[in-house]
Amino acid sequence: MMERKENIPAIDQATINQTGEWELMHGVALRNADGTARHCPYSIAPVTLERTTYEKLVRVTPLISKLIHGVSEDQAFLEENVTGAALADPFFGRLLKINKQIMANNPARLPLLIIRTDYMDDRNQGARVIEFNGIAAGMAPFGQRVHEFHRYVQMQWPEVFSRWVAADNGELAVNKGLDNLAKGIADTAFEVRSRSDDKGKGKPVFIMVVQEDEDNVYDQHLLEMKLLDLGVRPVRRTFDQLSKELSTGPNQRLILKDIGGVDVVYLRVGYQCIDYFIPGEPECCSALINTRAYIEKHRVAMNATVSQQLATSKTIQMVITNMSAKQLSRWGLTEAEGVEVLSVLAEMKPIDANTATWLRDHADVHDWVLKNQGEGGGHCVFGSDIFTKLAELKPDKYKAWALMLRLFPHERERPALAVRDNKASVVEDLISEIGLFTVHFEGKPMAGDDGYAGYLIRSKPAQENEGGVHTGKGVLDSILLIN
């Protein structure tokens, strides 16, 4: 690790207070249970990333989105490859069941694919995909704001920035995640309205499906305000509310009570059973997951469709990882594009009765991570705990899990300063997760020339397994490009 710069003043509490106030003033906040807000945890200076690595990720991520779109519309492939996981995981099984019902009735929904593809820059392998986030793919607004925050620190407190940044020279990587995501959604909303009987009648309507009383609302509100600026009317609803307020209009138009025709539906929930829970309901997901199926009967742009959620699952990620570049051409990629996609996919293996023996006799268990189909934090098993978990699994649950080669990303060359709850702490071993956003409507790029919209960086201490900003030990971050 490189030595810290000497003779540069350490940051004081007054400066910490001002940086936290900047975050609150710009909406980079989490809601407390009592309705007040606190700033999101953040790094005072950005992580460094080789320019060539960044440029490769920006180039390859839209290819991944092109691939996922093709897979999500390939129902035979989906059913063939997710049936095993569906039998092993009740929620995943529910998704497959509802997807079969949707597809059997010629759904009118128009697929809007908003993905955040998450990477880590491994010390030896280079940048590799952790997972595809095809539902509730949020925090693009925070990504842009933290880039703007680091530019503010660089200009306002150059000595502080210089002390805590991990390189003496570099360029902040521009991040327009909020602007590009909003524009992609707005352009989609106007396109859907232009095809409807509501053409020329009022603003397009955008529904954001949210959790009740969640804390991560300011990221959502930033997107809503930007959509308002672009001429779109944003509306917030829970699944429970939608189950009572939706109806069908002429020509398969989705109608929201007291609002009218709907053009875009964007799910910020729906990746776990609890998102559909109604107290007293005998079967998890029965009523509210049917609301998703109901929406897909209509001519409305939707992210995520159930098939998109299946296509971005760990099971499909594993299947794709073990395919050849030529096989990926099934979904419109050239063989050269397939090679690029495979170059960023980490090795994955299915679970069977011999996995524990193979790990013990032929591999190092610390080189692998065990994952289930869950999204978000808390779904990974590391180290010797893998043996414990494998011993607990019954054979009919194997296909709900997969092994993935563990990624060991670069630690920062210098200690980093993290701020949480207005208190600064030095982190000696901060590592970063890199999320890149893409937006496509019916397979067509809706951000830039190829669909790339922006990025989100979350950093955490290397010893921490959970890097969530509001549920783990993560902090918001941005990128400084170095040559």
Overview of the structural elements:
This protein is α+β, with helices and mostly antiparallel strands and 483 residues long. It has one domain. Helices cover 37% and strands 24% of the residues. The protein has 16 helices and 25 strands. Strands 5, 6, 8, 9, 13, 14, 21, 22, 23 and 24 form a 10-stranded mixed β-sheet that branches. The protein has a 4-stranded antiparallel β-sheet with strand order 15-18-16-17. The protein has a 3-stranded antiparallel β-sheet with strand order 3-19-20, covered by helices on one side. A hairpin with a 2-residue loop joins strand 19 and strand 20. Helix 9 (239-245) packs across helix 10. The longest helix has 22 residues, at 51-72. The radius of gyration is 22 Å and the shape is globular. It starts with 12 loop residues before the first helix and ends with a strand. The model is unreliable at 1-9 (pLDDT under 50).
Please specify the SSE layout and strand pairing:
Blueprint: H1 13-25, E1 29-31, E2 37-39, E3 42-43, E4 47-50, H2 51-72, H3 75-88, H4 90-104, E5 110-122, E6 126-133, H5 140-156, H6 158-164, E7 171-172, H7 177-194, E8 205-209, H8 218-229, E9 233-237, H9 239-245, E10 246-249, E11 253-256, E12 260-261, E13 264-267, H10 286-295, E14 301-303, H11 306-311, H12 314-321, H13 325-328, H14 335-342, E15 348-350, H15 355-362, E16 368-371, E17 380-382, H16 385-392, E18 402-405, E19 416-420, E20 423-427, E21 430-441, E22 444-445, E23 452-461, E24 475-477, E25 479-482
Parallel strand pairs: 4-25, 5-14, 8-9, 8-13, 13-14
Antiparallel strand pairs: 1-2, 3-19, 5-6, 5-21, 7-25, 10-11, 11-12, 15-18, 16-17, 16-18, 19-20, 21-22, 21-23, 23-24
Helix pairs in contact: 2-14, 3-4, 4-10, 5-6, 5-7, 7-8, 9-10
